[in-house]
Amino acid sequence: MVELLQMRNEISDMFNERKMQGRAEMRGMENKIVELNYKITIMLGSEVRSEIEKLRWVTTRRGLAAIGALATVVFICLRMNGSNKKKKEADASSASSTSTSPPAPPPAPTSGHLFEIQQSPASQ
C-alpha cells in the first residue's frame, strides 16, 4: 500500500512537472511570437518609410522639372514676342524713311454710320 501511495505521488509529481514544462514552452513560444511580430513591424515600418521617402524625391524631381519646363516655355515666348515687336518697329521705321508722302487720312464716315456724331437742331 505504501508503494502504491508512493507511485501515486510520483505520477502526480510527473504530471505537475509536465504541466509546468508545457506552460514554460507556451510562454517561450508566445515570447518568440511577440518578438517576431515586433521585428516584422519594424521591418515593414522602415520599408514603408523608405518607400515614402523615395516617392517624395521622385515627386520633387518631377515638380522641379515641370517648373523648369514651364519657365523655359515662358522665357521662349517672351523672347519671341520681343523679337516680333522689334521686327515690326524696324519695318515701320524703314517704311516711313523710304516713303516721302504722308500717310493717307482715315476715310470720312458715311451717313448712317453708327458712331457718327449727331448735332442737335439748336446748334445748327
UniProtKB/TrEMBL annotation:
Name of this protein: Uncharacterized protein
Record field: compositional bias (Low complexity): 92-101
Organism, as annotated: Ascodesmis nigricans
Region of interest called Disordered, as start-end residue ranges on this chain: 84-124
Keywords: Coiled coil, Membrane, Mitochondrion, Transmembrane, Transmembrane helix
Keyword Ion transport appears in the UniProt entry: no
Compartments where found: Membrane; Mitochondrion
Membrane-crossing residue ranges in chain numbering: none
InterPro entries noted in UniProt: CCDC90-like
Recorded GO CC terms: membrane; mitochondrion
